[in-house]
Amino acid sequence: MSGSNVYFAGGGGGGQWLYNFGGSDVGTGGIGGGGDAGGANQDGYNAASNTGGGAGGGSANNINNVTGGNGGSGVVILRYPSSYSISETTSGGNVLTFNTYTEGSDNVTVFTSGENGTIQFS
């Protein structure tokens, strides 16, 4: 957006069953916030926050159990004509966190956190 690429919801890297440590390649998380898989006998890595990315898988052998990471928290993305703008009304002091970008003749607003705000187009 605004001249640079922005990615969301990258897939998590796949873990591996390392029977007697016979393998070493594990998956890499996708662009857009996906978490990498853990190496030999390691838990998976968490996805990036506010991207909606998937968690990385853990890589285990036949002795130890490991876990996958946590998925990234989500986002809300709105695309609308640039003749409109967004304003926010907060409720209870919990402010919405968002950024607005220009994409061609449209605006794109990305909301990354908040709970009780109200938005309005004008």
Notes on the protein architecture:
The protein has strands at residues 76-81, 86-89, 97-103, 106-113, 118-121. It is mainly β and 122 residues long. It has 2 domains: 1-72, no CATH class; 76-121, no CATH class. 27% of the residues are buried. The chain has no helices and 5 strands. 0% of the residues lie in helices and 24% in strands. The protein is elongated, with a radius of gyration of 19 Å. The strands form 2 sheets. It has a 3-stranded antiparallel beta sheet, with no helix packed on it. A two-stranded antiparallel ribbon has the order 2-5.
Keywords:
122 residues; mainly beta; 3-stranded antiparallel sheet
Structure summary:
With 122 residues, this protein is mainly β. It folds into two domains: 72 residues, no CATH class; 46 residues, no CATH class.
Total domains, how many?
Answer: 2
Question: Number of helical segments?
Answer: 0
Based on secondary structure, the structural category is: mainly beta
What fraction of the residues are assigned to beta strands by DSSP?
Answer: 15-25%
Q: What's the shape?
A: elongated
Mean pLDDT: 78
Number of strands: 5
Oligomer: single chain
Largest sheet geometry: 3 strands, antiparallel
Low-confidence runs (pLDDT<50, min 5 residues)? none
Q: Order of strands across the biggest sheet?
A: 1-4-3
What is the N-to-C succession of helices and strands? EEEEE
User: In which range does the helix fraction lie?
Assistant: under 10%
Outline the fold blueprint.
Elements: E1 76-81, E2 86-89, E3 97-103, E4 106-113, E5 118-121
Antiparallel strand pairs: 1-4, 2-5, 3-4
